[in-house]
Amino acid sequence: MNQKLCSGGIKNLCNKEVRVISESTLLELKNDIVFQELFGNQKNSKITGHLLSLILEREVNNVNLDLNKRMLGNRIDSKTGRLDIRAKFNDGEDCDIELQVVSYKYMEKRLLDYWGQMYTLKINSGDDYNILKPCISILIADYKIEKLLDLTEYHTMWNLRERKHPDKILTKDIEFHILEIPKIRNTDIKKDELALWLKFIENPQNREVEKNMEESDCLKQAKEELAYLSSDPDFKRLVDARAGFLRDQNTFEAVGIEKGKAIGRVEGKVEGEKEKARKIAKKLLEMKIPIKQIAEVTGLTEEEIEKLK
């Protein structure tokens, strides 16, 4: 499908400095910086456009990735909650592609939020609503979505439909695509190029992918581009630094959670002892014991005991 999108792409790659690299040293595409640099760079717009055409099941042309805020060249300690690639194509359609390797709660709300940000940024006060163009949110998940466990399809598409008449779409301006990599295990990638791409994203060194990529010029170009990036020592240092930062962040978060639990246990114990003291104080008040003596017995202040009357 859409082979012409990458026509001549591999030849264009020859303009770069050629570096020899072994298969075993290819960078992981599921690393956020690597994914963004491969699919979010304007010079690779044909690769990204071909992948979009497979997901959207229609022709995608004139892909603009220049509006993309890429991580390359930015701080390695940028916020890690989200990786997205912004693409504009065809007649002004906007698309957000997100890769997630860790399961997040309320993922569907996150998708809706991203879509809303794209959609509302297109219009200013006083503008006519007809200037709004369709916006598409795409999630590539390296895990199974909890709410979709009963669906066997690895690729699902969502939009606004009438409940009793599902063939009626209220508007085509809102569209979500969810791709779950774990669900492609039993898919025949010889007949399904999109599944082949997902296997490539999951593991660029997958031998099954290597055997079946000959029919896809864009996929071969993507792998050559990845090999080029993997051979760039400066880029690799950036990727390694980013990975180290993420490991440190995960460690700090884990330590913080444990400290929080420990503090919670201590505070809970203290509050439990205070509650026990208050119950004893109430009984002593009923026995007409002087407040000063109750304070000495329970450890409560006289003010705290007065409130118990």
Short description:
Helices cover 44% and strands 13% of the residues. By secondary structure, the protein is α/β, with parallel strands linked by helices. It folds into two domains: 3-231, no CATH class; 233-309.
Low-confidence spans: 8-16, 71-82
Total number of domains: 2
Q: Could you tell me the strand content as a percent range?
A: 5-15%
Beta strands, count = 5
**SSE string:** HHHEEHEEEHHHHHH
Q: Report the span from N to C terminus.
A: 81 Å
Q: Please give the order of strands in the largest beta sheet.
A: 1-2-3-5-4
- Structural Rg: 28 Å
Give the biggest beta sheet.
Answer: 5 strands, mixed
Mean pLDDT: 81
Could you estimate the helical fraction of the residues in percent? 40-55%
Number of helices: 10
User: What would you call the structural class?
Assistant: alpha/beta
Which of globular, elongated, flat, extended, rod-shaped describes the shape?
Answer: elongated
